[in-house]
## 1
Amino acid sequence: MSEVSNNFLYDLIDEDIREGKIKADEIHTRFPPEPNGYLHIGHCKAMIIDFGTARKYGGKCNLRMDDTNPAKEDTEFVDAIKEDIKWLGFDWEDRFFYGSDYFEKDYELAVGLIKKGLAYVCELTPEEFRDPKYAGDLTHPAVSPYRDRPIEESLDLFERMKNGEFPEGKYTLRAKIDLASGNFCMRDPVIYRIKYVEHHRQGTKWCIFPMYDFAHPIQDALEGITHSLCSLEYEIHRPLYNWVIENVDIDYNPCPPRQIEFARLNLTHTVMSKRHLRALVENGVVDGWDDPRMPTLCGLRRRGYTAASILDFIGRIGVSKSNSLVDIRLLESCIRDELNANAPRRICVLRPIKVIIDNYPEDKTEYFSLPNNPNDPEAGTREVPFTKELYIDADDFAKDPPPKFFRMKIGGEVRLMGSYIAKCINADFNEDGSVKEIHCTVDLESGNGNPTDGRKIKGTIHWLSAANALDTSVMLYDNMFTLENVADIPEGKTYADYIDPNSAVEIKGAKVESALKDAKPGDKFQFVRIGYFSVDSKYQNRFNRVVELKGSFKS
């Protein structure tokens, strides 16, 4: 399994081991997704780092659902997250937790902070909290009129908040840290708020919920996490993480958790915000969370990406301290390399035109052997039938060919892949100018070899026997967004302005060879001269383009 190689995270962990803070096999990480949507490839990077780090040191990694914000959480997402993690080859064993498992302990520790004079109940409304009069700025400290509220009063109000006596927004619990801090996260942050919403596991038991910055370090500490690896946007929150660890009453074993940040994954032409991905689903822009254009793991899987190709991709981009934009063509290159080596070759005619071989017997069928994979001799061959009536792709014929057009044209010769050389005699056209059918003759002496008279044939096209071809539907997928850096949307524009209407093109009436009649959902093939395709898992008799045959990415 390809995973991330040595990096600065490992260097810092090695330093902790050398200094005797921890033993290698005591390394304990966690993967804490929020169950309010499906995992996307950005989560995949975090997952591989979390599970991969534990695996490297012989330690452990927990799976913990961060369900402290119940607004849009659902067991559907919990199940999907588990499936994705297993699909990528990781195992949390018996260490599966929910953030909500610790609500009682969160409350107890919050009460402990109030008793220490390190937290207080505040009455500022959300609007007042954002007002510069109270929030301050870089040159003025924040202000809280309730900072010196007596401890007993805060304890009483906090318990009544828990008991549901106040409306949402009436009170919050704030940590008492430093209103003049240059880090606004430390300016007496809110650590509890009132929220009347049913929790997917706790029901209506709780109407106050801890903020992530308070709950997360407590969860890490209670589970014995030694290294809390997270993305770079949490760097500014690290002082608050450490403050919670230092001030709540928890016995740390084997050591207090250490937060370390790494750069998140950003891909060209790709939205990595779960909120915006949810909007695409809810607004019907895509065919669900598993739409093959989505960067979700279930979408990539349905499109035809493999776990190995995604692990390879994450391994190639590595781990860094600074954010960057990764070219999506690198991801495409990873799956292309894998499928080029492993995918069986099959023939598909996307836009079929009938070809009649005038000098071929009506009742004759012969078979030509074609390799299942030229890169793998052990894959063997298959027998492809050849008959009087064939299909070729419309793109392989030109009535008025441009210069250097080496495919089928009237009066020209072309190799029918793996079989005879054909000469186009004439073509019949419909009233709209489209091709009705093409008439050819074949050099019956050419077989699958060179012409006996030494003439050179420059072009080769694929074909199918009309009598044996199967009907199918083919989806040609491409990048959903035309904008390279989707995070950099010009003012006055929205994501919707950059959705490519041609990112999903369905071709009905395509033809494939009969060897595909038993193909199962998820089976992958190279359609010769076209690209790599996978059998759709949602719609019967549909092939999804995973990636084009050739790419322009240079690593």
## 2
Amino acid sequence: MKENKCTTQGAFRWKQFNRKGYAVFCSLKKEFQIGVLAFSTLTFVNMGSVSAQNETPVQLKNYELEEIEVTGTRVPLTELESAKMVTVLSRADIQAAAVQSINDLLKYAVGVDVRQRGEFGVQTDISVRGGTFDQVTLLLNGVNITNPQTGHHTADLPVSLNDIERIEILEGPGARVFGTSAFTGAINIITRRDTDNQGSVHLTTGGYGLVGGGGRINYVTHSFAQQASGSYHRSDGATKNSDFRIGRAYYQGKYTSSQADIHWQFGFSDQKFGANTFYTPKYDNQYEELRRYLISVQAESKGWLHLTPTIYWQRSNDHYQLIRRDDFGENFHRSDVFGANLNAYFTSILGKTAFGTEIRNEGILSTNLGKPLEEEHYVKVSGKDRYFDKRDNRTNISYYIEHNLLLEKWTLSLGILANMNTALGTGYRYYPGADLSFRPKDKWKLYASWNKALRMPTFTDLYYQSETLQGNVGLRPEETHATTLGSTYRTYFFRADLSVFYHRGKNMIDWVQYAPDDKFHSRNFKLDNMGVELNTEIRFRQIFRENFLLDNLQISYGYIHQKRHDEVEFYRSNYAFQYLKHKFIARLNHRVWRQLSGSWSLRWQNRMGGYDKYEENGNSSGVLTPYPSYALVDLKLHWDTERIKIFAEANNLLNRSYYDFGDIPQAGFWFRAGVNYTFSF
């Protein structure tokens, strides 16, 4: 085996950092003495607090190099090490964006399709690379919070933007990393873990009767760190019957010792909103209430063998009314998810190896979803004169092993997941995956991946019945084989990522109408998605000077094409065939004056498929209207000091009329403003 420059290193002391291809690998998890750093190197690694004031070039000072670890494998790897492409929305991206919810922020990721029915994260469908909203795994600090009832509710999060450190977006299947539900991708939301004793309060107001606020507090001792936050927002709504009330509460803690680190979190969200024509255009006075609880505990041992056990529980309550304040078409659902997993990994001369197991139980009590219960087994709906008379439950058990081989210019990740779901019998199914990256020169990275995945139908897919929807208990689970090829080029002031993908799908699930006056039926299709994505960024202040007027410019473009392999005729698709064919994003951040900065965002989209315009009497027009393409411009101005941050933002600056879903109109021009005050104690 070729001798590795990292393994032969003795004393960890650098006289100069020259950005060689192997430099980052040699520095992982080690503290170095650095003598001379070029200015361009300092700006590229973004060390933030590092200063060379009052030091001569020959003086030495100890610094710990900052690493960005991304969740693309079962073991912690840096972004440079990882053989899988992971898009990261940083804290700086969050602060600059003219958004007030995590769901809105995800619109700026070119590979993500965010279809909103309401504002401020109210009822949002999130999908990746032409998939559907049920095919994405959503994680909060690595804990799977996907909703088995329906993906419509997966993005009802207990955290707000003020709680977020970064968001990692894994595009493409990740079964061996996140389980079988990571069918087209996974989104991992990482919360902030401040190191100072401090707190903050914020207030927001704006058009359409918007008012809200919240606060967070951080308390740190020698071994413990704890954060708590809460927020509440309400609005009259920008369109008919789209008022909302949203409350969130979140708490997380950490205990650190020489043997292990322990993390725990608790989240709560409560949403009440007018649902306009969210689920069927025949009724424009729908209403929904959602309440969610989440608890998890994670640990990680220290030493040669890292053990990372996790246990979690989440409960979701859903109260839906087809007609507001009327029991006609009313449904109640309560879903519970229990999970436990044990991940283990170690490092050897052969690389990093991970293995482990996970068990996840998904259950639902409902007035609509599941198998009928005997009357003596009915369960009363809390606070209501109604009973859950249907139920279903399934358990998912999986085992996995993965190995990551790290060489000077190569990274190879191989793994396989063995999975058994009680809804499919007692046999195991196997989902392998392989990721490879090659760094021929300092600035280049080439990568390729192939992964296989499976997704179980949601309880809504299987059982839902209403005036307009008909589930299908005979649905088969979705399967995919996904291939991705890509390259990354980066310097200290420029970065470009280009990737192409092909997802070969079998038994893909969609809801379709066979005629204009028909119900929507859930059924399987054979469907492929293929496309290309390009992301670029130029950092002007790395080229010129730190106080240069322009900060950075990001330009992204995504293209997707679908191909069907069956001859099933239908009138209209509701999800899978209504994909984004084109998506273009441009974002510019710049300084205006002193601490005042501006952020401009342009997003252009072209969606395939069409929607049925309903007449005022609730009858279908019988003619499909293609989704028109549209461009939205957002602007945010923010004044930032150490203690006070003030912002004013305008969404849909040009007051463009547009539709994300069906004929549900989205908000026009919406002005918002707010202030955040931080204090120490």
## 3
Amino acid sequence: MYKNLTEYIAALEQTGELIRISAPVDPVLEIAELTDRQAKRPGGGRALLFENTGTGFPVLTNMMGSERRICMALGVERLEEIGERIEALFAEAVRPRAGWLEKLRMLPLLGEMAQWMPRDVSRKGECQQVVWRGDEVDLGRLPVLKCWPHDGGRFVTLPLVHTVDPETKIRNVGMYRMQIFDRRTTGMHWHRHKTGERHYQEYKKRGERMPVAVCVGGDPVYTYCATAPLPDGVDEYLLAGFLRRRPVELVECLTNGLRVPADCDFVIEGYVDPAEPKVVEGDFGDHTGFYSLKDLYPQFHVTCITHRRGAVWPATLVGIPPMEDAWIQLASERIFLAPIRLAVAPEIRDLWMPPAGVAHNAVVCVIEKSYPGQAFKVANALWGAGQMSFNKFLAVLSAEDATGVSGEGYLDVIRKRLHRFDPKRDALFSRGALDVLDHSAPQTGFGGKLCLDLTRKLPEEGGERPYRSEIPIEVLWDDFVAAAGLDFDELLWLATGNTDPNRDVSITPEGVLRVDARFKPSEVERGWPNVVTMSPEIIEQVDARWTDYGFAGDPLPSPSRRYLSLVRSDSAKL
């Protein structure tokens, strides 16, 4: 794996996966517009290294924004290799052993597992080669991006936020965006479902300040692990050690006693005081393709900033899919399929989260079906399992219909099965937890769910329905959406984002599933957000500077031009 982010950048360049831009580029909006154009190229384009940001630090974007680059970041040729390793490990660990000789054969496996455990080291780390204290502490010295026109400010978008449970002392490393408020304070955007928020509440009960350390950069595997859907209490650096096949070395922070990877590029040390009132954070152009609107979150106080010499600032851009997060999500699909099969539903053969479903809105599940009602059983199991509990729309297929199929190929299988779909029999409505960022939910973080059982029906379920020439689903669109000329993936993104299954989906007396996918600003008290697009001024500026950046030929088209007709006001909120 990689000693630091610079080594990963060299590997990207050697394989033709990196574009260097030496011309001056502004971290406010300009970097984001260039990144969006690259990220939406077929296959995810290439990573971008902006060498002249006006701060002394380069910015790296889209660093894991393709299947090849996410594989490089995780040190594999195929993402499936990691899932296969996990499955083989579980199989060996639980295999019955008849005698002591068999048990002795487990020792090499236990020894290998011990090598994955993170290690505390007493020396200083590369991440502490340069130290800013006192008046030197100034977040404005960092090349933090402002990504979209109506964002509340600049946001750290790839922070590895370290906290510790005050009771158990178990570490958590999560990724929670951080809005820069001033030289020494930021927001800390952890949701009520997240481990960081649980730790915050524990410190609040104890009446104590909460130490927090935020790392940026280092081995890219750290960034992936901070996003991974691990159970609460499982150390992200154990997963990193498993992926790297060597332990993560952790050094002690200078001002709060937390431990962080020695090879990170930046460390921002500080604390959150639960006795302080929460502060307004946002708006922010989010991975849903809509703005997440202003809300109250804790405030993070910075006590010290350290960085390694030659540090590079990695950042990600989220917005209308597909973007870099779709490839990170793909890695989680492949890595965590085996644990889901082992711990949640053994009949699951595959899971696919289409990029248009922005992780939680739409999921396809393939099962080995053997008894009636099994699709609904699996749906209920998934809706109660970790981050899968945030899923809103779920389609379940039979393995016999999906042999040799993966990814986008499932859409053809779904279309064929929908011709035999009976909404009155094959749709399961439910309610439960949703992502806090789901703007269409009637209440924040709580709303409807819908499973479409597209499996082959057994006699006990009434058998297969006759083939219908028309699919029994209709979708209601706003006139401006119908006129926008969007493709299937874009319509799927809008429909699943703008819809609550219990409020907006119904079955007509004729047996048609009717989906109201219109914008509904009057339906939720917190307000309905706008679609995320770049301003026309920045689009034109980037077009005009295209050759300045070192590019030849005509400018890549701005993805935002395609969506400007969906924007309904000159703010983050309709």
